[in-house]
Amino acid sequence: RAVVPSSVALLTLARAQKLVSNDPAVILDVGERRTTIVVVDDGVVAYARDVALGSDHLIDALMSHVSVGHTTLSLSWEQAEALLREAGVPEPESGSVVGAMQLPVATYLALIQPVLEQLISELRRTTTFGAHSASVPSPRKLIMSGQAVLIPHCPEWFGLQLGVPVTVMDGERLLGADGSAAAIACGLASPDCPTTLNLKPAGWAQRSLTVRAASLGWKVFAAVAVMLWIGTALWQGSNRALAQELHTLDARWEQLQPAVALSETIQARQQSIQQLMSRQLQSLGGLHISRGND
């Protein structure tokens, strides 16, 4: 039996509530310790990733020791959770203090702001680099679920930071008031949730063909490179053998130079002897003729 990823469960619930269309969108489900980000294009999952951040990290941040005037405050887990559910993400000028412990708004925001900024940074990174790698346009809508929707003004803050309209998934029909915080469970419980998966994103066939063509191109390039390398190696080896053979012939020719010179000297002397003998024969012939006349 296949395990259905959380991204498919979130998309299933968003489809059931008619929150997705052919336009690109991003689903943000903030859990307690993990946040799921899903980039949706043409009604299917194009890219998804999990981030190890959640609402509990906001509570952990509020449990830090802070100095307020001459007093050092340290909230328990229950106090920090209650303060987060009460104050949410207030505007800096919305009031001077928040909560029963009269924590200044500036101090409160300074505690939770790093976690919120990290979450929005991961969201921007996913919608920019992740969507680009999947050839998906920038999202035009933010769909939120999870623990963040239970924090006052948190969805609006994310929509403002991302610069797109925000919609909250409604899970109350299935699980009551906390249903929106359990969108993954609602999606899995939906009858429309697939039991077998086909996670091929939009344009998958074209991208797959492109990847295969690129892979084939690299293989052909590698084969040609190997053949050129082998041919170059053989050519260089042949040149080295030819050069070595020429060097051997030159050495042998140098060794034969004295014999060639001796042969030329002998031939010259033989020619000189032949010329001398020819002259002597001519002289003897002339002498013999003169005696005959006498």
Descriptive notes:
With 294 residues, the chain is α/β, with parallel strands linked by helices. Helices cover 57% and strands 13% of the residues. It is rod-shaped and about 160 Å long.
Topology diagram in text:
Elements: H1 6-16, E1 25-30, E2 35-41, E3 44-51, H2 55-62, E4 66-68, E5 71-73, H3 77-87, E6 97-98, E7 103-104, H4 105-133, E8 142-146, H5 154-162, E9 166-168, H6 172-175, H7 183-189, H8 204-293
Parallel strand pairs: 1-8, 8-9
Antiparallel strand pairs: 1-2, 2-3, 4-5, 6-7
Overall shape: rod-shaped
* Straight-line distance between termini: 144 Å
Q: What is the total tally of β strands?
A: 9
Oligomer: single chain
Strand content: 5-15%
- Individual helix count: 8
Rounded Rg: 47 Å
**Class from helix and strand fractions:** alpha/beta
* N-to-C series of helices and strands: HEEEHEEHEEHEHEHHH
For the largest beta-sheet, the strand count, sense and barrel status come to:
5 strands, mixed
Approximate helicity band? 55-70%
Overall mean pLDDT stands at 80
Main sheet strand line-up: 3-2-1-8-9
Spans of at least 5 consecutive residues with low confidence:
195-202
